[in-house]
Amino acid sequence: ANPLITSTKSMEFDGVDDYLQVGDIGVEKSLAFWFNPDAAIDSSSAAQRIVGFSTGYYGITLGAATGSLTGETLTVLPDATNRTATTKEFDAGRWYFITIAWNSTASYFDIYVDGVLSTDLSTGTHTLVDWDNFKIGVTNDLAGEFDGLITEVGTWDRTLTSLEVASLYNQGMPTNLLVNRNNYQSGNPTVFNTKQVDFDG
């Protein structure tokens, strides 16, 4: 009977010099986040980094990424060996929920978009490494700044199941209080009533 409380806050990145410094978080096997790009993302878009860690370009990139894969729009580069990518395009001004989860059988990260495993996945064999000097919105060497909104970034030291990924997504997409004001006060959580009415027929 308790209400479900969902945070409505998000961080806005200007694509120039905004990022969050997190630090060393160890070897992680899953990562999830919501993002809302200011411009549409396709395979010809300039590379923007959602998260960066370790050295150089490791992390998650939106837009065109260098390397052997072609047409990718979201790329996971967890080490120096290879990467996983999807070719799904992302519209401007819309929230998307992304989860990457370690696939121990195939030794790569699965990519889930809005709670569903991507069907246009390009994969390569990876090695699990420490996610050192973890940053949000930029590469570890302060390049490829993200332009848009990011919220609810989370990491896990285990592989999330497909049911857990769907559950995280189904908790509800973030609310933009500048557009959906209704009776909300800025900065307060949105409360969804979980009670129902019993009809006796």
Strand and helix map with partners:
Elements: E1 4-6, E2 11-14, E3 20-23, E4 30-37, E5 48-52, E6 59-62, E7 74-77, E8 84-86, E9 96-103, E10 108-113, E11 116-117, E12 121-122, E13 134-136, E14 147-156, H1 162-170, E15 190-192
Antiparallel strand pairs: 1-15, 2-14, 3-13, 4-9, 4-14, 5-6, 5-13, 6-7, 7-8, 8-12, 9-10, 10-11
How would you describe the overall organization of this protein?
The protein is mostly beta strands and 201 residues long. It contains one helix and 15 strands. The strands form three sheets. Strands 3-13-5-6-7-8-12 form a seven-stranded antiparallel beta sheet, with no helix packed on it. Strands 2-14-4-9-10-11 form a six-stranded antiparallel beta sheet, covered by helices on one side. The protein is globular and about 65 Å long. It starts with a strand and ends in a 9-residue tail after the last strand. The N terminus is likely disordered.
DSSP E strands, number: 15
Please state the average pLDDT score: 80
Helix content range: under 10%
Helix and strand element order: EEEEEEEEEEEEEEHE
Uncertain runs: 1-5, 176-189
Rg, nearest Å: 18 Å
List the strand order in the largest sheet: 3-13-5-6-7-8-12
Q: Which structural class do you get from the secondary structure elements? A: mainly beta
Give the termini distance in whole angstroms: 23 Å
- Tally the helices: what do you get? 1
Give a quick account of the main beta sheet: strands, pairing sense, barrel closure.
Answer: 7 strands, antiparallel
> What overall geometry do the principal axes of the alpha carbons give?
globular
Q: Could you tell me the strand content as a percent range?
A: 25-35%
